[in-house]
Amino acid sequence: MKFVEKAQIMDAKAIDRAIARIAHEIVERNQGTEGIVLIGIRKRGVPLASRIQSKLKEFEGTDVPLGVLDITLYRDDLQQIGPAPIIRSTEIPVDITGKVVVLVDDVLFTGRTVRAALDEIVDFGRPRAIQLAVLVDRGHRELPVRADFVGKNLPTARREIVAVNLEEEDGVDAVSIGEVVEV
Amino acid sequence: MIDRKHLLGLEELSAQEIELFLNTARSFKEVLERPIPKVPTLRGKTVANLFFEPSTRTRLSFELAEKRLSADTVSFSASGSSMSKGESLKDTARNVEAMQIDIIVIRHRSSGAPHFLARSLECSVVNAGDGMHEHPTQGLLDIFTIREYKKRIEGLKVVIVGDIAHSRVARSNIWGLSKLGAKVVVCGPRTLIPLEVERLGVQVTSDISDALADADVVNVLRIQLERQESSLFPTAREYSRCFGITRERLLAAKKDVLVMHPGPMNRGVEIAQDVADGPFSVILEQVTNGVAVRMAVLYLLSGLDTGDKLE
């Protein structure tokens, strides 16, 4: 099994612009940054959330709290994936009750990760609102979930794979589309 | 990842597997600090707690861990069950399993009882203490607690004081700690130290001040007063005078020594009142950590499809 890249969709510049736009939209939608808590979904939502946080600091001069969510314990496919996956830490630094939580993830696909994240978030408190920011929306939803802030809408076939690489995790910034082929 | 269906002892675990249990327990400790300290992970799984021997702490801790993971639980204790009507262990367990149980947690006075069940049943088996053999979740929670305070295990001097011969806690601690590179010293009256215990890689002494010198951790075992009748030690007072952990004796240990006890304590016998409640004591922290560690164990074992994987 091997990932074969068909096309690069975004380079480092494009990713940076998309994140900047998302940050602006978050400010616009919420009329500022008051009460906003950014929460990145492991794994690549975490560096993205942190980048949005820096943009908000740059544009508005405010420090927005940043949290990390590991949704493993809330997955709906635990029975199917064999050996128990490793659980990484969840860190929610502030009480989220009454706040506006902006969930951040790299790719929105079936919507199941977001479902798990929503369930986990409400166990931490009752936010005033939960919004969703994703770098790529590739379609093929299996649940009624939609994103509030989208970096790029990318029509895909179901069998295709969208690979998001980020400097912090992968050493390079790039979004590409490809397929897994048998070798 | 853990490719294991049962947790029977720390003896058969690799250092990496022990680390995985400990790291997973850290994540569960965070879960326990949440406003709603419960996750849906084991929804639909059923755990049976079979306690053929009395236990308060371990049993409550397992039951709580199961509930925090959203598993369904059934519990039974030996008194008042059909065990007292002469049913064999295997029959009892097979009947329990026939009720679609995914995990059996067993405490039994005979060493090897969990291993026997693991061989004869399809479901996962967790050893919650078998005779004088092992008590792996206690071993893991002791190591977890040490690591939480000391940030490491390797190179630490850990002293286990008391009735080593009859203690499953001692054995699990010895296996686990030495695999992770701690220096383990056991100390107690000669009659309560098993022959050839050195072969497990521990140092043996009957001199308490020797044992405590520069110790990082002292794990004080419960002295079973019943043993007095079999003349293994003369009196509780004499035991206390020779091996009781007092404030004065602890002066020989490191300044930040940790004092642990698996409970239940005989205050004033193996551990002095002011040590049990003193600044070095992490005894209640051990109890708190026990739930997180047991959640980690149940979670990691349950991830496997039962049946087609080898132990």
Count every helix of chain B, treating DSSP H or I runs of 4 or more residues as helices.
Answer: 11
Q: How many helices of chain A does DSSP assign?
A: 4
Note the main sheet of chain B. Answer: 5 strands, parallel
State which percent range the strand residues of chain A make up. Answer: 25-35%
- Fraction in helix of chain B: 25-40%
Radius of gyration of chain B: 19 Å
Report the biggest beta sheet of chain A as strand number plus sense, adding barrel if it closes.
5 strands, parallel
Major sheet strand order of chain A:
3-2-4-5-6
Order of helices and strands of chain A: EHEHEEHEEEHE
- Structural class assignment of chain A: alpha/beta
Number-wise, the strands of chain A total 8
The overall pLDDT average of chain A reads: 94
Unreliable residue stretches of chain A? none
Q: Most extensive interface: pair and counts?
A: A-B, 21 and 26 residues
The strand count of chain B comes to: 9
Helix-strand sequence of chain B? HEHEHEHEHEHEEHEHHEHH
What is the molecular shape of chain B? globular
Describe, in short, the structure shown.
Chain A is of the alpha/beta class and 183 residues long.
Task: Describe the fold and architecture.
The complex is a heterodimer of chains A (183) and B (311). Chain A has helices at residues 12-30, 45-60, 112-122, 167-170; strands at 2-10, 36-41, 66-69, 100-108, 129-137, 149-153, 161-165, 174-181. Chain A is of the alpha/beta class and 183 residues long. Chain B has eleven helices and nine strands. In chain B, the strands form two sheets. Chain B has a five-stranded parallel sheet with strand order 7-6-5-8-9. In chain B, strands 2-1-3-4 form a four-stranded parallel sheet, sandwiched between helices. Chain B is globular and about 55 Å long. The two termini of chain B are 14 Å apart. Chains A and B meet through loops of A and helix 1 and helix 11 of B.
